[in-house]
Amino acid sequence: MEEITSLPNSLREQIASAQNLLAKSQQAEQSGNTELALIRAEQGMKIIANIACASPELAAVLLGAQIGHSGIQIEETHHEDSYEVIEQKFWGIHIGTFVYPTHKTIRTFRNVKLI
Predict the structure, then answer these.
(1) CA dihedral for 38, 40, 45, 49, sign (positive or negative)
(2) CA 40 to CA 26: how far, in whole Å?
(3) In CA terms, which of 82, 96, 105, 114 is 20 to 30 Å from 12?
(4) Residue 115 host element (H or E)
(5) Half-sphere exposure of 49 toward its Cβ, with a 13 Å CA cutoff?
(6) Cβ–Cβ < 8 Å for 62, 52
(7) Residue 66's closest CA among 6, 19, 7, 3?
(8) Element (H, E) at 61
(9) Distance (Å, rounded) from C-alpha 6 to C-alpha 63?
């Protein structure tokens, strides 16, 4: 099996397009336009996903490089469902019990960069 020394032109164009979009995303983020930055980054990642269909190894390298450069934000969501039991008493005599469901959601964000 021979080693691949060059990439097809179509793949080079896709890589260049993804890099261009990610660079524009960084510029938009630096200028304070986070919405545009997210849109451009998503477009670039869609191109990388298309590359992954043709060459998973190359897509992994590109994605690793991007994560190492700009980092990622990890969101952890923890849901906790519990019940609150309230007993009603009248002059010490138990007259009823009410059960209320309570839902608690904890969201934690962490920024991670690969070095």
Answers:
(1) positive
(2) 9
(3) 114
(4) none
(5) 6
(6) no
(7) 19
(8) helix 56-70
(9) 20
CB 14 within 8 A of CB 47: yes
Cα 13 to Cα 16, 48, 55, 109, distances in angstroms:
5, 12, 14, 35
Token pair listed for 38: 């997210």
Where do the structural domains in the chain lie, given as residue ranges?
A: 9-70, 75-112
Q: What tokens does 27 get?
A: 């510029």
Mean pLDDT for 25-38 is 87
When computed from its CA atoms, the radius of gyration of the chain, rounded to whole angstroms, is: 26
∠ CA 46-52-54, nearest 5°, is 120
Of the candidates 80, 88, 82, 83, the one whose C-alpha atom is nearest the C-alpha of residue 100 is: 83
Residue 50 confidence class, pLDDT cut points 50, 70, 90: confident
Instruction: Work out the mean pLDDT of the chain and round it to a whole number.
Output: 79
Burial of residue 40 (CB within 10 Å: 0-12, 13-18, 19+) is buried
CA distances from 88 to 63, 82, 102 (A): 59, 20, 19
